[in-house]
Amino acid sequence: MTGLRKHCWLVLFAVACSGSTDFAPYLGQEPPGDTPALFAPGIVSTDQRELNSIFTPDGREFYFSVADSAGATVMVMKWEGGVWTDPAPVSFSSGHGEVDPFISPDGSRLFFGSRRPLHSEEPESGWQIWVVNRLGSGWGEPEPLGGAVNSGERQIYPSVAADGTLYFQSIRDGTLGESDIFLSRLEDGEYRQVENIGPPINSEYAEGDVYIAPAQDYIIFVSSDRPGGFGQGDLYISFRLPDGTWSTPTNLGPTINTERTDYCPVVSPDGRYFFYSSGGDVYWMEAGFIAEMRNESLP
User: Fold this and answer.
1) Cis omega before residue 158 (within 30°)?
2) Quick check: 159 and 174 in contact, CB under 8 A?
3) Distance separating alpha carbons of residues 223 and 248, to the nearest angstrom
4) What's the rounded Cα separation, in Å, for the pair 10 and 24?
5) Which of 93, 105, 97 is nearest to 128 (CA)?
6) 3-state secondary structure labels for all residues of the chain
7) Model pTM?
């Protein structure tokens, strides 16, 4: 048993045995520093292929995905009775594949990608974006987003800003490269139109796995095969300029990006930690580098 894994289980065991209801944030993990650390080894990051990582705004539920040759399943852990529950499939799991969970900043909706049939009498669909609404301590029934969003060849990795604007990865008419990042604004409770966010973020290469900050003041995404990258797919950041355009994307550098594909970026709801996936595991680190890169990028 590794030191980190042993530490994690000792924390959980001690809390359970004491009967304490003191909250153990981030699954009771020892906080990381300014370099990436494996998140929850032996619990979240295991010998399976794990990806995605999203906490609810109150920090008391954690969602991630486990992928295998048959597809992917969204898993959840909850803080209940003074302990974190073991990972279990979400209540709305269908068996057709679910991935890329993202919770709206107000905690009221959970978006995800799935290949489940759009209608019960139809066969399995391609990857579409679905949403479930919060009902008490659980979730309601999943519904596909409107045709404006689910109208491409493939749409995955939803990310939602505080005003409801949806960013996602897709392949459809108007795509500049192998895949692009698109957005759709919430209008009268519906996503009616989709637009390509364009250069300098989208390019002739493949862009996706987008994380949009709640205030839409910065965006983190993965791009494959861009010149100057460190691996198969690298994470980049771009900041909103005073005129509303985006700054030239900056590679997050070799501390984060490796020779592998580094993907699935997200910042914790409290803004303290940056999570991402690499090599079939979930990593986390302090998010202070974002402010530092903002100061370097903006005039």
Assistant:
1) no
2) no
3) 13
4) 12
5) 97
6) CCHHHHHHHHHHHHHHHHCCCCCCCHHHCCCCCCCCEECCECCCECCCEEEEEEECCCCCEEEEEEEECCEEEEEEEEEECCEECCCEECCCCCCCCEEEEEECCCCCEEEEEECCCCCCCCCCCCCEEEEEEEECCEECCCEECCCCCCCCCEEEEEEECCCCCEEEEEECCCCCCCEEEEEECEECCEECCCEECCCCCCCCCEEEEEEECCCCCEEEEEEECCCCCCCCEEEEEEEECCCCCECCCEECCCCCCCCCEEEEEEECCCCCEEEEEECCEEEEEECHHHHHHHHHHCC
7) 0.90
Per-residue pLDDT tens over the stretch 109-129: 999 999 988 776 565 668 999
* pLDDT for res 91: 93
What residue has token string 């920090």? 59
Statement: residue 243 has pLDDT above 90: yes
Pairing of strands 195-196, 180-184: antiparallel
**Distance between CA atoms of 82 and 20, rounded to whole angstroms?**
6
Domains and CATH numbers, the chain: 3-8+25-297 (2.120.10.30)
Q: Is residue 236 over pLDDT 50?
A: yes
Measured in whole angstroms, the distance separating CA 26 from the mean position of its chain's CA atoms is 16
Side chain identity, residue 220 = I
Label residue 195 exposed, middle or buried (CB < 10 Å: 0-12, 13-18, 19+).
exposed
Residue with tokens 């910042």: 267
Per-residue burial over 143-172, b if 16 or more Cβ lie within 10 Å, else e, is: ebbeeebbebeebbbbbbbeebebbbbbbb
- Structure-block tokens of residue 289: 């580098």
Handedness of CA 191, 192, 198, 203 (dihedral sign): positive
Judge whether residue 9 has pLDDT over 70: no
CA distance 156 to 100: 7
